[in-house]
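Here's a chain:
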Amino acid sequence: MSIFRGSAPAMITPFNKDGVDFDALKRVIEHIVKGGSDAIVVLGTTGEASTMTAEEKKAVADFTIKQVNKRIPVIVGAGSNNTVEVCSLCKSYEQMGADGLMVVTPYYNKATQNGIVSFFETVAMSTRLPIVAYNVPGRTALNMNSGTAERVSKIRNIVALKEASGNLDQILEICKNTKNNWDVLSGDDNATLTKILHGAKGVISVVANVVPDKSAKLAKLALDGKYAEALEIHEEIFDLVNAMFCETNPIPVKYAMSLIGLGSDMVRSPLTQIEKAGAELVKAEMKKLKLI
């Protein structure tokens, strides 16, 4: 069972001096939904879940599920390096009414490849919801290789893989060998079109916070085989995509969102607000696209 195909923003979490800015969060959600996004991912890396309290995470998930109100699927990040905690989070978000879950490979522990499979088998048994596995070794210090991905793809309710290893050979091998088992989703905005050309079914995107309409249109055109038209959008937003990673994500995207009135640029320690050079780059790319 696929959760979505197309573009799903990895949504930011707006903060203010008191904590989560729920007024801004509501505006962000409406911007994403009305921009034509195919799903929404909350409490991922871009959402700064790693620096939120358990109470904040549950409050943000619940608020998002209720605000979206089934207009598009809501996928909630339930990642941790503690398998018991992941299972508990999965159960909580299922009870809240989430449409799906995203679970990152366990970081820091440095599990073996067999350990990765065992982890996802255990997590999958804890919930009836469809799960997006997430491979991002640049964050976790652990890569799910293509052979392991093939094994994980056969677990009953692991329905997709967000692949952000940056290893194109590995990604294309996974697309080829697992295409009948689950959906491969791009985890890198700059490679979305390339991955869809090779069988991926969409993207979980950072830049789609800012331009949900363009990200959704690019994915749809590519999935419909209209590659030349998709390439035009890819090239149009390519420099903005790169600007989103001029500093550690989500520093630049939160600054970009602040420029269009969707929350402040506040990030939580140990992240810091954007530096002058990065701010100038992001602002310049936003101006090129007439976003500000």
